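idk why but the lab printer keeps eating my pages so im just putting this in chat instead. protein + adenosine-5'-diphosphate:
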Amino acid sequence: MSVLNKKTVEDIEVAGKKVLVRCDFNVKMENGVITSDKRVVAALPTIEYLINKGAKVILCSHLGRPKGEFDPEFSMAPVAECLSKYLGKEVKLAADVVGESAQALAASLNDGDVMLLENVRFEKGETKNDEELSKKFAALAEVYVNDAFGSAHRAHSSTAGVAAFLPSACGFLIQKELEVMGKALENPVRPLVAILGGAKVSDKIGVIENLIDKCDTLIVGGGMSYTFFRALGYSVGISLCEEDKIELASSLMAKAKIRGINLMIPIDNKLGKEFDANTESIIVDSDSIPDGWMGLDIGSKTQELFANAIEGAGTIIWNGPMGVSEWENFAGGTIAVATAVANATDKGAVSIIGGGDSAAAVKKLGFEKKMTHISTGGGASLEFLEGKELPGIACINDK
Ligand code: ADP
Ligand code: MG
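predcted complex ->
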């Protein structure tokens, strides 16, 4: 299966048809008020396309974590209101998910109308990918479109199960994720430079193992580098280290050598006395970390080394910060890498940022627009980079 071969909304006939669209409207809320409507805005291109084509649009999503029954705290009402405002037309909210209200509203739609189902997780079967529920979703419509990338790693009724009973396609959001990330993994412009950081090796094993077969250069930074140091016999003081992953780090380095991949780990580090934003700090070479200190960022020599490796890239995949980037004193490595990635992109490289904390660091620096693609799905993009098949994408009809 090639993910580059999935049908998109543009490949299917939608005029006059009832189209069920699974969106990611899992917006940030406080006291019943939406505090960030970014996800609603991100879904608009697909919805507007369908309206303009004269489809009868039935939207659905989950919001928060209700417990399989109606709960006003997790009602989609604020989303319906927000959508109405952006679309400039009323988006009616069904009182249920697949019940009488949803069925009646769906039956009453005219071409170009838009409605929203209640929170799909009000149905107990949703997260179990229950077949009966999937059939009920399917019965509401004639076509299924999935545009919820952030939920595509979940096999739920509204994200995957329903596709077994309707012709299906992906929306523009998923299409972009597949085009950019799928191409980077299947057929990248070389050299492909993968940058992996974050706290733990164990979080990223799958990504490292998948990318080590594909990339030309693999840069390792962040908390996981200390496990690699141990594999080289260095002491790491009180740095984050996963004893049970030292052997794995060793074998990854050996694999890289055999494959001729340039695996780079930090040559110097910024250490702190304790895990605190304002702790005193020193910079030392990787083989000289003193007892009682912990590595919290890459050092300045490493910043330069990594930036040089990133400079000549054709494709860059970045997941995970180089240090505790939430703290100013230990954000330098992540800033240096973000700057190098932005510069490389300016020169024509394709850059992909996956991972919540890395994306947050890029946004904080104002580099959001400089990157080719910042994935919208944390867990989903991680699983995609691990080379796993995402149920919400696998279920979509091939072209
Ligand atoms: P992403 O969300 O981009 O995938 P992760 O969640 O894997 O990234 O990792 C981010 C976290 O890793 C941040 O909270 C950061 O503080 C932490 N981190 C990075 N380097 C270190 C380090 N040297 N020691 C401890 N924590 C670290
Ligand atoms: Mg994270």
